[in-house]
Amino acid sequence: MTQVTPVRCFSALLLVACLATPIVMSPGFVSVCVFVLIAAIGAQGVNVVTGYAGQLSFGHAFFLAIGAYTAGVLGGDHGLSALIWVPAAGIVAAVIGALIAPTAVRLRGLYLSIVTIALVLVGQYLFVNLDGLTGGAAGRSIPAFRIGTLDLSPGRELQVGPWQLGRDQLYYYVTLVLLVLVCLYVRNLGRSRVGRAMLAINEGELGAAVLGVNTTRVKVVAFALSAFFAGIAGALYGSYLSYVQPDQWSLILSVEYVAAVIIGGSATVFGPVLGAIVVFALPAVIEKLPFLHDTGVAPANVAAIIYAVVIIAVLLKMPRGLIGLVDTFTRRISTPNKLPPSAGDGGLPAEPPAVLAPRLGRSQHP
Amino acid sequence: MKVRPRTFAPAAVLGVAVALILGACGTTDADTTSEGGLKGPGVDSSAKTITIGEISALSGPAESVGIPVHDGLETYLKWFNDNGGVDGWKIKLDARDSAYNPQKTVQLFNELKDNVTLLNSFGTPTTAAIRPLIDEQKLVTGGAGIDWSDDPQLALLGTPYAPAVADLVTYVATEKAGKDSKYGIFYQNDAFGQANLAGYESAAKTLDLNSVSEVNYKPGDTDFSAQAAKLKASGADYVVIGAISPNAASLIGTAGSLGYEPTWLFAAPLFDPVLITDDGTATGKKTAVAPLIVGHSYASTYTTPYDASSPAPGFADVEAAHKKFRPKTPINANFTYGWSLGKIYTAIVEKAIADGDLSREGILKAKQSLGEVDLAGLASNPTYGTASAEPPSRAVDVAVVDDTAPGFLRVESKGYTSDAAASLKPSS
């Protein structure tokens, strides 16, 4: 019989909250949540290549764009179902990622970062000039998510029992389901041979090679997987936004994704999700604070400053990212009287992680 | 090395199951019909208030235009309410800041959509992102910088970017420039800049002009030395500015420092008086780029320039409201534009109240049966009907930039229009 523990109770409450959010919260809040869920899917891509494989990549915006434009061409120009264009967006991005990876994996650290930055800049130039596919600088429309008679176009709704779900709510549930699938995959990846090989490369490429890891191949897989998730996120992002233009796929967007993974906690399953909440929802939440509207400065500008201070504080005080805080919290509620005073302070791990053990947030502490 | 099947098998199985379940679900058309009579989204019958939503660039790269347009709209609505509103109804403005970001615009639209009667939206790419949502909500939307389209919900004001550029270039090419003159354009590389480019290319094609350079920049860029150098190298004598004023000032200043001083062409509504003085008024301090613009630049306009010493008819109310509600904000073309938008919105609301229907359908019907809206000479009067493909106007007033003239514009030709402007079509 399954034992009822505080952690399980808390997880159940969290699940209920996630499911109830679109029904009880305002459409504006649900809209922010949809963007966060999509960003969390994309952040898992950065998590794989940067968090697990240790390859710092700023090229994510490029792959997000590939996904969005693939959705536009397949779903919009050819009228195909989302059942085709969602995975296709990931596959096209992954193939392009795999083609670029052999060049990128020859480089490390700052050099790799520069190459991936160049990818974003080259991408923006291409997106502006490939008018037929991208609509050029003026942008193009991206179709709504449609599978059979399930149509998430504006103006459509679904009756589920007493609840009438509109477009935003439906997008919320679709992206939530996809995020769960992606998290499941990343969780299993961390336990798989290739996932452990990625972690080995992260700890030391030479050491990994000595252990028999084909480092080039594993890094190519990491790039392709990262691009796959980015492609799916880009397709969903474009579909929900309904319109994209090249200017949106900027270096800043890539930096936001990398920041989400670092802030949330890299090489963990739930860290990127937490990071996506902070990076993509916090500015909107801060902006709503009533006292910001009396400062005489645009609330968005004040919110940006507060947001920056919060991020710096998180990075300084929680080196493991927010997931460290969650670890501490879950351990406190599961063993409230047994926790050593120093454990979890500053987000530091209570015990040294095994070198090749997958760092899966709380799953490390069953 | 292979990923073990168990790595992806659970996710794949779950994914297929979810896809099958989703496919079995069927959505239906939402019932967007709202209650008839004096009820509808954004209508508070007990307090007798009607809320207009606004999503504008109050921060970010386009704030220099977004803020004064918002100020003008807000001032007009305060003045309107102060004068009794309409049949005892007051108009509220619920303003939000998009920071010129399409994603944020979608979020804000979702926050506002159920609680507003009309929407004022700012910006070309931002409004493009919410157009399907506007259509779904049947929400009548106006604003500055909205790209011209045949969408029945849009309540446009003035001449759209593309015909305004085409008119100005045609006027200069046929009335001012020599046969051997060279032309160029500097534009923001997004939907807004593309609309300017379309007008420029239409004029260049129609008149077979010698177009030597088309240079662009990304929104948010601040250094335009490469663009200035490229324009200078091309030898363009006339350069169209498809950019908002801070970027235009930066380009013109950089070009001046390179010794390149072509004739600058500002199509409506992109000539901003703050290019000439720091506050856009005749008494303000001259800017560094003013000498590079004044006397040998042209602008097209559809709003009447404001002259504090001798205001044109129609400015009496603007001045009174300005003095009472916002005395520190200068009256300029963007402020006047925002004020004029307010007049359009209240005219639509008045018509809907007279028709006894403040529902979404009632507001749209009121807009489509409104006919000509009298802007008291502040801007060209727009006419709204059921035929939405035609913009409010394809004509502009063409002026030379003159620091002694009202609003720094000395009008040379009123109601000018061109074949190049006539041939343009709205975006889909």
- The structural domain count of chain B equals 2
For the biggest sheet of chain B, the summary is: 7 strands, mixed
Q: Strand-and-helix sequence of chain A, N→C? A: HHHHHHEEEEEHHHHEHHHH
| Second rung of CATH, namely the architecture of the largest domain in chain B | 3-Layer(aba) Sandwich
Unreliable stretches covering 5 or more consecutive residues of chain A: 341-366
Quick one: how many beta strands of chain A? 6
Strand order across the largest sheet of chain A: 1-6
Mean pLDDT, all residues of chain B? 87
Helix content of chain A: 55-70%
Structural category of chain B is alpha/beta
In which range does the helix fraction of chain B lie?
25-40%
Major interchain interface with per-chain residue totals = A-B, 69 and 59 residues
Describe this structure in words.
The complex is a heterodimer of chains A (366) and B (428). Residues 341-366 of chain A have low confidence and may be disordered. With 366 residues, chain A is mainly alpha-helical. Chain A is built from 14 helices and six strands. The longest helix of chain A has 27 residues, at 215-241. By secondary structure, chain B is α/β, with parallel strands linked by helices. Chain B has two domains: 9-158 and 311-384, 3-Layer(aba) Sandwich (Rossmann fold); 161-301 and 395-422, Rossmann fold, CATH 3.40.50. Chain B has helices at 5-24, 63-82, 102-112, 124-137, 161-175, 191-207, 225-234, 245-257, 290-293, 315-325, 333-355, 360-368, 419-422, and strands spanning 28-29, 43-44, 49-56, 90-97, 118-121, 141-142, 154-155, 182-188, 210-217, 238-242, 263-266, 297-301, 371-372, 383-384, 396-401, 409-416. In chain B, the strands form three sheets. A seven-stranded mixed beta sheet of chain B has the order 9-8-10-11-12-15-16, sandwiched between helices. In chain B, strands 2, 3, 4, 5, 6 and 7 form a six-stranded mixed beta sheet that branches. A two-stranded antiparallel sheet of chain B has the order 13-14. The longest helix of chain B has 23 residues, at 333-355. Chain B starts with a helix and ends in a 6-residue tail after the last helix. Mean pLDDT of chain B is 87; it is low at 1-5. Classes of the chains: A mainly alpha (366), B alpha/beta (428). Chains A and B meet through α2, β3, β4, α7 and α8 of A and α1, β1, α3, α4 and α6 of B.
